[in-house]
Amino acid sequence: MASPTQLPGLPAGAADPCVHCGFCLPTCASYRVLASEMDSPRGRIHALRAIEAGELELDATVASHFDTCLGCYACVSACPSGVRYDQLIEATRPKLNQANQRSSWQTSFRKLLLQVLPYPRRLRALLQPLRAYAGTPLQTLARRSGLTRLFGPEIEAMEQLLPPLVPESFNDPLPQINPASGERRGRVALLLGCVQRCFDPSVSTATVKVLQANGFEVVIPPDQGCCGAVSHHQGELELTRELARDLVRSMNAIQGELDAVLVAASGCGHTMKAYDELLNGKAAFRAPVLDVQEFLADHGLLETFRAQLQPLPGVVAMHDACHMIHGQGIQAQPRQLLRAIPGIQLREATEAG
């Protein structure tokens, strides 16, 4: 029998509110796909209880069931008992990173990703050779021929997500100061993100344009780095804290007043709003961290901006990002903003995709 284990960061009795009712099961992506109790929130909580009681070893097999958790936190919203599964899985992930929990390939691959993804310069250097591949007939040929399968399931899955790489993916075209259009209503800082600025830079460009048109000056610190979301989701807390402290210093170095530090990526916003806990209250932004949609919904869209919106007749399905709705509790604000577009018919997506 294994000896009783108190997982680091996991408060004693944190799993006690779970009554194994099963309300979480239909909301869990890994359970719906794998149909395994051990790959559900309820099953993982049962495993945690067994580990703490010394009835189960946290070996590679058990660890694999925790690794299937996407960290979407839909189960947290669905739980009638108020179980904070998000806190449970976040406390468990660092333990999974210990030796012998994963294969040498998985360990090396994770280390490589954590050495590249949070650092835009490194990521851009890695992506340079792919400029002639992503979004071209060469990529289509590689997929149809089955060539991508030769690199293993992890690489193949990542290749399927590789978008076309535009010139803006390899530089930051936005200036440091982006003045408001017309009378200034406020001044905000904007996080560009690490992965987003490389794979979807148009998001930041569009965000700045909308903020400017609604009377906000947007400041973009040129030396800003990763918020730590990538490492946080992997349970690498020391790296997360290092990245968080660097970002706080970068944002707090901005001269003048700030009304908010804005984020246009839900995973980043979820992590940045947890800085107080991650850094034990020892470092904080001097302005509140807000998602750009909750900020705009709170301040309201200018009538001059509304007048510029072109009609968009048609049906639009609304899908909530997991770390937006479950991690930050933001649901009404995106819908409020979208309904400002003339002619739009907003519909709810029936299932996460």
Read across the widest sheet, the strand sequence of neighbours is 1-3-2-4-5
Mean pLDDT, all residues: 91
What is the name of the CATH class of the largest domain? Alpha Beta
Fraction of residues in helices? 40-55%
Identify the overall geometry. Answer: globular
The tally of helices reads: 19
Q: In what range is the share of β-strand residues?
A: 5-15%
For the CA atoms, what is the radius of gyration? Answer: 22 Å
Low-confidence runs = none
Helix/strand order = HHHHHHHHHEEHHEHHEHHEHHEHHE
Mind telling me which CATH architecture of the largest domain this is?
3-Layer(aba) Sandwich
3D architecture notes:
The protein is an alpha/beta fold and 353 residues long. It has three domains: 25-96, no CATH class; 112-168, no CATH class; 170-303, Rossmann fold, CATH 3.40.50. The protein is 44% helix and 8% strand. It contains 19 helices and seven strands. The chain has helices at 29-34, 41-52, 60-67, 74-78, 85-96, 104-116, 120-127, 137-145, 153-160, 195-199, 202-213, 229-233, 237-252, 266-272, 275-278, 292-299, 303-308, 322-325, 332-338; strands spanning 177-178, 186-190, 216-219, 260-263, 289-291, 314-318, 344-348. The protein has a five-stranded mixed sheet. Strands 6-7 form a two-stranded parallel sheet. Helix 3 packs across helix 5 (85-96) and helix 16 packs across helix 19. The longest helix has 16 residues, at 237-252. The two termini are 41 Å apart. The model has no long low-confidence stretch (mean pLDDT 91).
Features:
8% strand; five-stranded mixed beta sheet; 353 residues; 3 domains; alpha/beta; Rossmann fold; single chain
